[in-house]
Each structure stands twice: as C-alpha cells, then as structure tokens.
Write a structure and sequence with these properties.
Number of domains: 2
Number of strands: 5
CATH topology of the largest domain: Arc Repressor Mutant, subunit A
Strand order of the largest sheet: 3-5-4
Order of helices and strands: HHHEEHHEHHEEH
CATH superfamily of the largest domain: Winged helix-like DNA-binding domain superfamily/Winged helix DNA-binding domain
Strand content: 5-15%
Number of helices: 8
Structural class: alpha+beta
Distance between the termini: 83 Å
Radius of gyration: 23 Å
Largest sheet: 3 strands, antiparallel
C-alpha cells in the first residue's frame, strides 16, 4: 500500500454557477479585487452590498484573508505577506506591513521622489514631524528659506495647507493622505522615522515646540 500524503495547498472552493462564488478564486478573490482599489477603509456592509453576499460571509472572509496574509491558514503555515489587511475605524483596507516601514519610506524618499532635492526631502521630514507647522518655523529649524521648497512639495501633493496659526496668522502645513499612502501607512501616528534617511536632521526631535 502506498503511503498517503497531505495536500500541498489549500482545498479548492466548491464551484458555483452564479455570483462572485463562480469567479476564479471565488468570493475571497472577488473581495481582494475590490479591496485592491479602495483608497480608504471600507466596511463589511459596503463590501457585502457590492459582492451581493451576506454580511456574515464577508466578515468571515475578511478574517480568513487577514490571517492568511499574516501567515496562518486552515491547511498550515504559509509565508507572511509584505502587506496586511487591517480593520481601521470600522472599515477594512490593505496596508504595507509595519515591519517594512524603513524599506517603504526609503523607496518613497529615494525612489518615487528621486528628483526631489536634498533640501526638499529635509523640509518634508520637518513638516512630517512638526505638523501642522508654518514655513517660518520650518525655516528656523533648517536655517534657510524654504518658500520655494514648500511650493514644490505642495505641487507634488505631498503637503497641503492646514489652516492658519491663531497668533501670527501664518499658513500652517501638514502632510497629505497621498504622502501617507506612498509610505503605506494609515495615520501620522504610524509615521516611520524619516530623519535617519536625511543626514543633518538626526537631532530634529531636540528642537523646542515654541511657535515661530
């Protein structure tokens, strides 16, 4: 008698004649396809409406996918992915795994924005750490005029206006959702350390919080 062997991969989903269950990969693949194009967290109810599936079924699939990307499945451990499926503020969205934040931030600063000058990247780091912050304060921290650099970063959609300083009336700036998206994070609280990538800003955290 020949020895029985364990299956090498996940069991195939039963085929269905109609709906997303009948698509290649079934409902789980359809769910992934939708999640790939969302630019903000989407609720299980919204996903269920789009896929025409019960909410309970969608919630079950979301949890299974999240575990699979973390390296755990019903048929055994698999390689963890470089991305993860997170439940944030009542919705679901793909994010780059936080373990790879230094790699992602390096790519954003040195790859996607390779044509940015060193001065622009340093100014971007100051704004990211001190937002919302005025141009005068950024200039004081960097020791140079940053007006033209701020215009460049604004044009690149990496920063945006965030109201006015209540005392001086100066325009305040903050990083944009596009900036966070390029870093693969959801909020500024998850912002990776940018200063180590920018020589000369290692002591950025030592500056006082006094306004300028």
């Amino acid at each position: 008698m020949s020895a029985q062997t364990e299956p090498e991969g996940p069991p195939e989903e039963p085929s269905a004649d109609t709906g997303v269950e009948g698509l290649p990969g079934g409902a789980a693949a359809a769910l992934e396809a939708v999640l790939m194009v969302v630019d903000e967290p989407v609720t299980a109810i919204q996903l269920a409406t789009t896929l025409m599936l019960p909410v309970g079924r969608v919630e079950e699939l979301l949890l299974e996918l999240a575990r699979e990307y973390d390296g755990y499945t019903n048929w055994g451990p698999v390689r963890p992915r470089g991305f993860e499926l997170r439940s944030v503020a009542g919705g679901w969205r793909f994010y780059s795994r936080t373990d790879f934040a230094p790699v992602v931030s390096s790519f954003v600063l040195e790859g996607q924005t390779a044509r940015l000058t060193q001065a622009a990247m340093e100014t971007l780091a100051v704004i990211a750490y001190r937002q919302p912050v005025s141009r005068a304060r950024v200039s004081a921290i960097r020791g140079v005029n940053v007006d033209s650099v701020v215009r460049t970063l604004t044009q690149r959609a990496l920063i945006e206006e965030a109201g006015h300083d209540p005392e001086s009336g100066a325009i305040l700036y903050r990083t944009t959702s596009y900036f966070l998206e390029r870093l693969g994070i959801g909020t500024v609280e998850e912002l990776p350390k940018l200063a180590p990538h920018l020589p000369g800003l290692e002591n950025l955290g030592d500056f006082e919080e006094a306004s300028y």
